[in-house]
Amino acid sequence: MQLKDKVKVNLSASKSNELNSELTFRGKLKRDKWLLLLALPGTLYYIIFRYLPMFGIIIAFEDFDFRKGIFGSEFVFLDNIILFVKNPSFINILKNTILLGLINVIVTLPFAILFALLLNELNNKYLKGLTQSISLMPYFIATVVVVGIAINLLAPGSGLINRFIKAFGGEEIYFIQSEGWFRPIYIITEIWQKNGWQAVIFIAAIVGIDPQLYEACEIDGGGRVRKLISITLPSIIPIISVMFVLRVGQIMSLSFEKTLMLQNPLTYGTSDIIDTYIYRRGFIYGDISYAAAVDVFKGTVALVFALSTNYVSKKLFNKGVF
Amino acid sequence: MKRRNFGEIMFQAIVTLIAIITIFITIYPLIYILSVSISDSSEIVQNNIVLFPKKINFDAFTKVWSMDNVKRGLVNSIVYTIVGTAINLFLTSTLAYSVSRKKLIGKKLLMVIISIPLFFSGGLIPTYMVVYSLGIRDTMWAVILPWAVLSFYLILFKSFFEDIPDEMMESAYIDGANDLVIFFRIVLPMSKTIMASIGLFYAIDNWNNFSNALFYLYDPDKYPLALILRNYLVAENESSQINTTQGRFVAREAIQSAMIVISSIPIMVLYPFLQKYFKKGVMLGAIKG
Description:
Structural class of chain A: mainly alpha
Number of strands of chain B: 2
Oligomer: heterodimer
Order of helices and strands of chain B: HHHHHHHHHHHHHEEH
Strand order of the largest sheet of chain A: 1-2
Strand order of the largest sheet of chain B: 1-2
Shape of chain A: globular
Radius of gyration of chain A: 27 Å
Largest sheet of chain B: 2 strands, antiparallel
Order of helices and strands of chain A: HHHEHEHHHHHHHHHHHH
CATH architecture of the largest domain in chain A: Orthogonal Bundle
Number of helices of chain B: 14
Distance between the termini of chain B: 39 Å
CATH class of the largest domain in chain A: Mainly Alpha
CATH architecture of the largest domain in chain B: Orthogonal Bundle
Radius of gyration of chain B: 25 Å
CATH topology of the largest domain in chain B: MetI-like fold
Largest sheet of chain A: 2 strands, antiparallel
Largest interface: A-B, 99 and 102 residues
CATH topology of the largest domain in chain A: MetI-like fold
Number of strands of chain A: 2
Distance between the termini of chain A: 39 Å
Helix content of chain A: over 70%
């Protein structure tokens, strides 16, 4: 009873006198104390594991030494970043990351759309449900398992694919050891694993199309193909554009686990991306400051991608993430 | 209404064929791996396995089960998944509930705190420095905590809580309940479905991911199964001739496959449940997120 009254008093107080902010603020604070207590653990998590690292970026501008600590290490300003940009592998790594990200979006998106259209055209309800259920399954399989299966299938000698190639009189291919095969393997496993999941949003969009449109088309004598071209496709083009823009905004977030497992020094020419480079320099070689500088570089590029695609999305579709 | 002309039938036939091929491509690798894992090694090394297992035996599983690190990894994975998921759900749901209340003081600030990490992150090395400074390297907490709350799931939770009518809270206030009591006694029991679905997603992530363990754990006894599997897969030159069980040779491919099967069993068992929640979750995210 009392609390409820207090709430009411506070609400009316804040409405009647917005200038009287001190009292209102304290009143609100008192009113919301339990809610704030509930928010505390999660907020602490964000501060410690998401925001402290943002400030920890300082070490990218230092010659970091574990014995001296963050505050004792020598400040070198942009030296680490300059070192990275001047590194001969810089162009290669940046190119690999952006190219793999872009190819990934450009290739996987049409597959998802085609799959959604395919399901829509299936008359058999049972087969439709089965196809969708099965297509969603690989999404839950661990990356390490997906790569494990791929390595197994592609292995020279015993691998199934090489056995087929040999059976048809071809030369054995050392897939995992060849630079040219890294991107196709990455993308194909990506499609195998995530196609069903990426199609869900398009399937939902197709289901949402007004059935009257199709009926009208039928009355006008339109067949399957006409319906597909004149109704289904135009109806889902907005969602396709939004998904495309959103995914281009995230092209820097490639799967670290998958890339790390699929790559080896022979294929760094195509397979070395920023994430694996940071891991190698920071964790294997122990160049903490240098790796942190690469982190800063990556974070900045990713931010630019995210903000600019968000801007485009807002301009074009009146719909942004924030 | 349906016109049953020839073109229509052909079209349906082609579409059906493509659907069946898609199903086949999706499940074939899984069946193949399962077949290799239960086939006799003599058949495997002669490259006789194409789809179905031959001379079925469980030597590979016996062998894998005799590897101490696999057993330890399995136990570690189970512990990390259970503890991790409990922490994920606790941190995510409490914060999400708070920010779902319209009147909450500082709500905007909290939403900014939650949203910025969607666009910018400190990165791997600075996160490592935080883990290092907290002194939790080489403990289970280093595996669990760095990704304890995912903003996407938090937003799903928030949308769900926002749909709970305010009148319900109001009447609870009148009965003298505070927000803490309301959350644990009224809201949580109402949220079993979303708790189960987001919990399943977190659990899958916890079970599947190995990168935190790779970054922060040094003691191999603490490795989760995923990392042990990864190390086994990338270790090229591990001698395959010593892989014997009861004096019988076990092919490396069979052992790999058996490990893959073992680490995928929990997912496959959970899949029917997952699938139900999965679609709901994606829809919710698509519409509200």
